[in-house]
Specification:
By secondary structure, the protein is α/β, with parallel strands linked by helices. The protein has helices at 10-21, 33-41, 50-55, 67-75, 98-110, 124-129, 140-150, 165-193, 198-205, 213-222, 233-250, 255-269, 280-287, and strands spanning 2-6, 25-29, 45-46, 59-62, 89-92, 114-117, 120-121, 132-137, 154-161. The termini are far apart.
Length: 292
């Protein structure tokens, strides 16, 4: 099967490798020339842009950072929908706002194509192991066709409902992640002000009711050690901003998420945006505490 992947960041690159290992004929493209060059050196066929990737593929995956970028790869001058895409299936795997999914799907259908959204829980290790959890919005019959590809990337696929619901579920999940990291930042800052060491606090928190697999995996980064990047602060900020915007449009108050967004925005402004989200507590202690 011929599969296209547009967006060759950490997730897109890992997905291209995983699918090639399982015998798929993959063509990819990224707006960053250095990403294309690096993956081409590893044997990935690189197209000239989204339009060529879509024309050359039966199923097209997109993994884009934000909503306007996704709109551009579909509707831009060299976008997917500028070519002949009749019969194609698009699997949009970014973390976007629900209204974006509801906007793009009918545009694809007007061109004779189909689209489902399939944002995932999990990062690079889960891509490589094929153990992501996909939350799908769209028509059930289109998901049935997409399974040939998605099942090589996931341990479980859950159909959430019509277009927009997959994105809504991903934002809901990331609200919890953002809140947890912010709560941890405040906990560690409070303890540090009372004379506790970072090692003491992380050891004690690992025994608490709120201990998570994420905390265990990120303990080294929380202590200032190097670790594998999973999700950067700038991207989580974008996701929480999308959640707050979606809440505003649908009458859902988001006071906790708004507070988390303020801390994440301060971290981005403080040049922490490219850091792993586990670096937020360090920024919080260094950049946001009141000095006496």
């Amino acid at each position: 099967m011929k599969v296209g992947i547009v967006g060759l960041g950490r997730m897109g690159a890992a997905m291209s490798e995983r699918l090639r290992e399982h015998g798929f004929d993959v063509i990819g493209w990224d707006q960053r020339a250095e990403a294309n060059k690096k993956l081409a050196a590893g044997g990935l066929r690189i197209g000239s842009g989204p339009r060529e990737v879509a024309v050359a593929s039966e199923i097209v995956i997109s993994s884009i950072t934000e909503d306007n970028g996704a709109r551009q790869i579909f509707n831009g001058p060299d976008g997917f929908l500028q070519g002949d895409v009749k019969g194609k299936l698009f699997i949009e795997m970014s973390t976007l706002q629900p209204m974006t999914g509801r906007e793009l799907a009918p545009l694809a259908e007007a061109k004779g194509a189909r689209l489902i959204e399939a944002p995932v829980l999990g990062t690079i290790p889960q891509v490589r192991a094929g153990t992501l959890f996909a939350m799908v919005g769209g028509h059930a019959e289109d998901l049935a066709r997409a399974r040939a590809v998605l099942e090589k990337l996931t341990r479980r696929i859950m159909h959430m409902g019509p277009h927009g619901t997959g994105y809504a579920m991903k934002l809901a999940a990331n609200i919890g992640l953002g809140a947890y990291v912010q709560a941890l930042a405040e906990s560690l800052a409070l303890g540090a002000k009372q004379g506790l060491t970072l090692d003491q606090m992380l050891d004690a928190l690992s025994e608490s009711a709120t201990a998570t697999g994420w905390l265990k995996a990120k303990t080294g980064v929380l202590k200032g050690e190097a670790g594998d990047m999973t999700l950067d602060i700038r991207t989580l900020r974008k996701d929480i901003m999308s959640a707050v915007a979606t809440g505003a449009l649908t009458g859902v108050p988001m006071p906790m998420s708004s507070g988390t967004l303020a801390a994440l925005s301060a971290a981005v402004d403080g040049d922490y945006g490219s850091g792993d989200i586990a670096e937020l507590p360090k920024f919080f202690r260094e950049g946001m505490l009141q000095r006496f």
